[in-house]
């Protein structure tokens, strides 16, 4: 399962989807967890120092970057943006933040190794997208 974590410090799940500085990509199974990619959303000023962009940073670009992942763990995400993320078959999960990335991944691994709750099965099978949009169309 490909998991993306929104973070500002690369140690803690503490990032809002639209303004976090980093997206860390992990391949997670019940037995292992491996960091496979890191995307940094900062810019370099003329003096080569990193300047954080504390405003929404090209949401379309962020959605494009996470395509192919199964889930993104965030501290917060707005409703309309969450809908767009799910339309791209990535499930956004708002977590109790801040929390250590290692702890978040260990909790997920525990679910993967045991009896999987329905929400996790739907994420793995990408069933949530069709269910979600079918419910929206019925209302």
In short:
With 139 residues, this protein is of the alpha/beta class. Helix content is 35%, strand content 28%.
Radius of gyration: 15 Å
The CATH architecture:
2-Layer Sandwich
- pLDDT averaged residue by residue: 81
* Global shape: globular
CATH level-3 fold name: Nucleotidyltransferase, domain 5
**Strand elements, count:** 9
- What does the largest sheet look like? 5 strands, mixed
Helix content: 25-40%
Roughly what fraction of the amino acids lie in strands?
A: 25-35%
Question: What structural class should be given to the helix and strand makeup?
Answer: alpha/beta
Q: Please provide the ordered H/E string of secondary-structure elements.
A: EEEEEEHEHEEHHH
Which runs of at least 5 residues are low in confidence (pLDDT < 50)?
A: 45-54, 130-139
Strand order of the largest sheet: 4-3-1-7-8
Q: What is the CATH superfamily label?
A: Dinitrogenase iron-molybdenum cofactor biosynthesis domain
How large is the count of helical segments?
Answer: 5
Query: Cα distance, first to last residue?
Result: 32 Å
Number of domains in the coordinates?
1
- State the CATH class: Alpha Beta
Task: Report on this structure.
The chain is of the alpha/beta class. The chain has one domain: 2-Layer Sandwich (Nucleotidyltransferase, domain 5). The strands form three sheets. The chain has a five-stranded mixed beta sheet. The chain has a two-stranded antiparallel sheet with strand order 2-9. The N and C termini lie far apart (32 Å).
